[in-house]
Here is the input.
Amino acid sequence: MRRTIVGLMLTAAALAAAGSLPAVAQTLPNSRTELSYSFAPLVKKVSPAVVNIYTTTTARVQRRLPFPFPGMPPDGQRVQNSLGSGVLVKADGLIVTNAHVVKGADEIRVVLADRREFDATLVTTDERYDLALLRIDTAGEKFPFVQMRDSDSIEVGDVVLAIGNPFGLNQTVTSGIISALARSAGGINDSSFFIQTDAAINPGNSGGALVSLDGRLIGINTAIYSQTGGSVGIGFATPSNIVARIVATGESGGRIVRPWLGISMQRVTADLAAGLNLPRPAGLIVKEVYATGPGEKAGFRRNDVIVAMREQPIDDEAGLRFRLATLAVGDVVPVKVIRGGKEIVLEVPLAAPPEDPPRDRARLDGRHALSGATVVNMSPAVADEMGVSEWRNGVAVVEVQQGSYAARFLRVGDMVAAVNGQDVKSVADLKKRIATGVSSLSIGREGMVSTIQFR
Here is the structure.
C-alpha cells in the first residue's frame, strides 16, 4: 500500500511538471503538536457573552377531579420554571434570546458565565420572528459581548460553534458545519428562513449563539428537528441579519415593520417555468400590481419574475419575506426581474403596509354561528401582522374566544367570505348579514373556501 501511495505521488508530480496538473505545495506536519488544532481561543473569546436565562411563571391550575386524592394540591397558582440561553450583543447589558424562552415570564434571571446573577427586564419581543431583547443593569460596567456578522456572508460547509446551556448544563460548546442556508422550516416562526447546522443543539440551547470561526454571531439557535426531543444533527438558527433588525428597532421601542411591495406573487413551478421559457423553476411571478403601491411606482408588471433582491437570490415567498424583514421602510432596493426573457433591475421604494381600509375591529356576540369571534377589515397592514403574504378586501378573524360557539369551526387567520350565500366585503357588511340570522357560512383558509350549513 505504501508503494502505491508513493507511486501515485510521483505520477502526480510528473504530470504537474508536464503541465497536466497544477503544482500544489503540501506541507506535512512534523509533530503531534502541529497536527492538533483547537477552538479554545475562539471559545474563550465568545463564551463570556453567552448567558443562562431562568424564568419563573405563575400559572393558575384547576383540579380536574371533584374530590382530591390525599396529597393532591388544591386549586390555585403554580410556579413554573424554565431555562434557556441568551447572548450579550451590547456592552451595556443588552441581551438577545428567543421569544419563547421568556414568553409569559413573571421573573427573568440572567446568569453570566462568571456566575454573577442579574434580574433582567424585557425590552421588546417579536413573536413573529421568535426573538426578544432583555436588559440587565450593569451599573456602568462594560460587559463582554459578541459582534454580529452579515449572515449573507456565510456558506454551506463553513465550520461553526453553537454555545448555550442545553439541559441546564452551563456553557456547553458543540461544533459542526453549516448544513444548509435559506432553509424553510414552517411553524417555527414567521420568517421560515433559517441557517441549518449539524452542531448539536438540544433543549436549553434556545437563544444561544451560533458563531463563525472569526468569533462573530451569525445566528441565534432557535429550534431542532427531532422525533425524540434530542439532537439528531438538524438544528435551526435565526440569521443575524434579522437579529440586527430586532436590536435596531427594539432599542427604540418599536417592532420590525416588514416593507410592503404592493404586489401579489406565486412561486414559479416547473410548468410555469416551461411556459415562460425560463431555464429553471426559480423565483416568484407577479400576479397583480396594486394601484399606487411601491410596486407600481417601481414599474412592476404582471408576469414579471422576481429572481433576486440586492443580488441575493429569491426562490420562494419565505425568502422574499426574510429579505424584506432585513430592510427598513424608506430604503430603495434593487430587485432583479425577468421580463420577456431579459433581465432588468427595478429600483423599489420600500413603504410601510397601509391600513386601508381601517380595520374596524369588532367582537361578535349574540345567538349566531360567529358568536365569540373578533374580526377586522383586511388590509396590507393587517396581513403583515398576521403573516399573510397576500391579501384581498374582506373580513379576517383575529381572535376566537375559547369555548365559544365560533371556536367549533373558526380559527385565527380565517377569512369570512360569505354569509347565507352573500359575499362579505367589510365588518359593517358582516354585521348586517348576521343580524338576520346565519344559515350558511363560507370560510377561507389556506387558499381554500369551505361552506358550513346550519339548521
